[in-house]
Design a protein that fits this description.
This protein is an alpha/beta fold and about 425 residues long. It is about 35% helix and about 25% strand. The chain has three domains: about 240 residues, Metallo-dependent phosphatases (Purple Acid Phosphatase, chain A, domain 2, 4-Layer Sandwich), CATH 3.60.21.10; about 90 residues, no CATH class; about 80 residues, no CATH class. Helix 4 links the parallel strand 7 and strand 8. The protein is elongated, with a radius of gyration of 25 Å.
Length: about 425
C-alpha cells in the first residue's frame, strides 16, 4: 500500500504584511498555500496513493467566507473521483470550536471526532488508522494516551496533532513523548503541528512532515509531505519527502571579509542567489540576507544601509530574472577597530564602548532603556506589524538585541571614519 502524510496546510493563510516588502510577489504568495495543497493532491494521483492522511491545521482558523472551504472540498473531490480515501483530524488552528462555517465533504473523506479517539479499518489493505481531532484550540491533555490498542495482524497508524514534549516556536498542545507513542505498538505515527520536518524515530516511524508551504522567514527550506510505502504484516518499507511548496524562504550569509568593493559585494550576492535558485528548482525565493565579517566595506554598509539594501534588491532581481525578492537585510559586519583598546580610553568614546558592552551583557538594562526611550513608539505601530518578525516588534528581546547591534555598528562606523580622517 502507499499513502501520503501531510499536515499544517494552513489553507488561505493571510500572510499579513507582505505589502511592506518592495518587490514581493504579493498575489503569488497569497495563492501559495492553495497551490501547495493542489500539489499534494497531484502527488497522490501521480503516485496512485491508496489514501491520504492530514494531521491537522488544514485551515488557518475560521474562514472569512466560504471560498476556502469550497476550494478544499474541490481538491478532495479530485481524490474521491480517483477512489483515494482521505482521513483527517483538526488541530489547534482549525479546532471544531473555531470553525463556524462548513462545506459538505466528498464521499470517502473521514474526519476523526474530537470527543474520543476513533479507528478506521480498511480491510482490503490490512490497515487500521487511529485519530482524534481537537475540540478546542488549547488542548493540554495527552490525547495519545487514550488511543486504542492496535488490532493484531494489521498495519497500525496513529494520526495526532501534537508538539510531543515541546518544540521551539510551537505551543505545547496535546503533549506526549516519543517513548509513549512507541509503547502504543503502532507502525507509523503521522504527526502534525510542528512546521519543521522531522523524523523523530524510525522504529516505529514517528514523523512530522512539516507544513506544505512556508509562510514567513522563520519557515525556511523545502516544505512538503511524506510518501509512505508499507505492507500489512511487514511494516513500513519506505518513507520519502516530496516538496510541494510554490515559494521558498531562505537565509543567505555573505562574508564581507574578502570583498574590496561594492561591485565585489554584488557579485558575491548574485552568485549565492543563483545557487539558491538552482537548489530550489526555480521556485519563487524570499531571501533574508545577512552581511557579516570584518572588512573595508564596513563603513559604507553601515552608513548607507538603505541605499545598499535597494541596490542589493536590484542585484537579486537581476540574478534571478525576477524570481527572487529581498525580504530583509541583516547587518552583522564588524568595524575594523581595536575595541578593547578603545574601551580603555578615558574619554566619551571609551565611555560609549563600555556602555554598549554593558548593555549587550544585561538584557534587563537594555529592556529598561528601550521602555523609557521607545514606550510611546510602540503605541503607534500598525496592528498588523505588532508581534511579527519585523524591526518594529520592539517588545521582543531578539529585536532589541538586533536594534542595539545596529546602533553599535553605526556608531563604530562613525568612529572608524574619524580615525581615517
Amino acid at each position: 500500500m502507499r499513502f501520503i502524510h501531510c499536515a499544517d496546510i494552513h489553507l488561505d493563510s493571510p500572510l499579513r504584511g507582505l505589502e511592506v516588502y518592495d518587490g514581493a510577489p504579493v498575489n503569488e504568495m497569497r495563492q501559495a498555500t492553495r497551490r501547495a495543497f493542489a500539489k499534494v493532491v497531484d502527488l497522490a494521483l501521480e503516485r496512485s496513493a491508496d489514501f491520504v492522511l492530514m494531521a491537522g491545521d488544514l485551515f488557518d482558523g475560521d474562514w472569512p467566507d466560504f471560498n476556502t472551504g469550497l476550494y478544499f472540498a474541490s481538491q478532495l473531490r479530485r481524490l474521491a473521483d480517483a477512489d483515494i480515501r482521505v482521513f483527517l483530524i483538526y488541530g489547534n488552528h482549525d479546532a471544531l470550536s473555531k470553525l463556524t462555517k462548513s462545506v459538505p465533504l466528498p464521499k470517502g473523506v473521514y474526519s476523526f471526532p474530537a470527543r474520543t479517539p476513533a479507528t478506521q479499518i480498511i480491510e482490503s489493505l490490512g490497515v487500521a488508522i487511529h485519530g482524534q481531532s481537537f475540540a478546542t484550540e488549547a488542548v493540554s491533555a495527552d490525547l495519545a494516551a487514550t488511543y486504542p490498542v492496535p488490532p493484531t495482524g494489521l498495519l497500525n497508524i496513529g494520526v495526532l496533532h501534537t508538539a510531543l514534549s515541546g518544540r521551539e516556536g510551537h505551543q505545547p498542545y496535546a503533549p506526549t513523548t516519543a517513548d509513549r507513542l512507541t509503547d502504543k505498538g503502532y507502525d507509523y505515527w503521522a504527526l502534525g503541528h510542528v512546521h519543521h520536518r522531522e523524523i523523530v524515530r524510525e522504529s516505529p516511524w514517528i514523523v512530522f512532515p512539516g507544513n506544505t508551504q512556508g509562510r514567513h522567514a522563520r519557515e525556511t527550506g523545502a516544505k512538503g509531505c511524506m510518501v509512505v510505502d508499507a505492507e500489512a504484516g511487514i511494516g513500513i518499507q519506505r518513507v520519502e519527502f516530496v516538496a510541494t511548496d510554490l515559494a521558498r524562504w531562505q537565509h543567505l550569509l555573505i562574508d564581507i571579509s574578502g570583498l574590496a568593493s561594492e561591485d565585489d559585494l554584488h557579485a558575491a550576492v548574485q552568485s549565492e542567489v543563483r545557487h539558491a535558485q538552482a537548489a530550489a528548482n526555480d521556485r519563487i525565493l524570499a531571501l533574508r540576507l545577512t552581511l557579516a565579517g570584518r572588512g573595508p566595506l564596513h563603513q559604507v554598509i553601515v552608513s548607507q544601509r538603505e541605499a545598499i539594501r535597494a541596490q542589493l534588491a536590484g542585484s537579486i532581481g537581476e540574478a534571478s530574472s525576477g524570481h527572487a525578492w529581498l525580504e530583509k537585510v541583516r547587518i552583522r559586519v564588524t568595524a575594523p577597530l581595536d575595541l578593547p583598546r578603545l574601551a580603555e580610553r578615558d574619554d566619551p568614546i571609551g565611555l560609549l564602548i563600555r556602555s554598549l558592552a554593558a548593555l549587550e551583557q544585561d538584557p534587563a538594562a537594555l529592556n529598561a532603556l528601550a521602555a523609557s526611550v521607545l514606550g510611546d513608539l510602540g503605541q503607534k505601530i500598525p496592528p498588523e506589524l505588532r508581534g511579527t518578525d519585523s524591526a518594529w516588534a520592539l517588545d521582543s528581546a531578539t529585536a532589541l538585541a538586533e536594534a542595539l547591534a545596529s546602533a553599535k555598528e553605526r556608531l563604530l562606523a562613525a568612529i572608524a571614519a574619524e580615525d581615517d580622517e
